[in-house]
Amino acid sequence: MNYQGEASDRGKAMSGSQEFETLLVEHDRGVTVLTLNRPERRNAFDSVMTNELARAMRVLDDDDAVRVIVVTGAGKAFSVGADISDGIVPGRGARREGPSDPVLLRPWELRTPVIAAINGAAVGMGLTYPLMWDIRIAAEDAKMGFVFTRRGLVPEGNASWLLSRLVGASVAIELLLTGRIFSGAEAERLGLVSKAVPANQVLDNAVELAADIAANTSPAATAVTKRLFYRSLEQPDRIEARREELEYFRWASGQPDAKEGVQAFLEKRIPEWTCISRDHLPEGFRREE
Description:
Elements: E1 23-28, E2 31-36, H1 47-61, E3 68-73, E4 114-118, E5 122-123, H2 125-132, E6 135-139, E7 143-145, H3 159-167, H4 169-178, E8 182-183, H5 184-190, E9 195-197, H6 202-216, H7 219-234, H8 238-253, H9 256-267
Parallel strand pairs: 2-3, 3-4, 4-6, 5-7, 6-9
Antiparallel strand pairs: 1-2, 7-8
């Protein structure tokens, strides 16, 4: 599977009818690649792309054929953050616009794993968005940074809550206070990304990982594992966290996919999962609208 290539001027159709001005959409074998497609602005987020990305993720999360979402950027940058080319301060005067408002999209509540393929520069909002997703693979030479203090702003995108949980308090406060630029290679050393590779290999690495998840993991078990992970980040009581984990382990062991997973392993074949739709998730594990 090779997703390297040039972006076109307009997004492709999604789910037969969805079209986007600022996104490209490609789907293959359970993996959907969303490409931020404003290369002339180095994929800076304006209101259109922000809302389209939120809408695309909602639509894809509701599609049983989509097992993993991969997000990357057109051109040499992933995203340089909010579009400030007109001199407007990001967020000033912003208001919520209803269900499509990206503030209301909580990526950690999606059942679908989201992988960031950070192919180039990722700063400000262009880095806090991937921070809220599940897995990050970056170009070794990508310029990255939480540059908010250098713009007279404070962190957004849940960064002040999440960053320390990913890289530890000492590293997190240094990155947030200085707003300094660091490389994808350093991000890997810090634990901010799981892998740093040459820029021309980022997307293929992300898609390969996504394809492995799509083929070899149970959709229901993956969705519950993802939600349990993020719940545990918020759970101060270790015993309660273990209790909840055990509760859903018992739930999973009673599902058809558990029997199929064991049988496929013994027979050395790819499993044929049946717990695919959102309806197979336990109560309380469906995305809140």
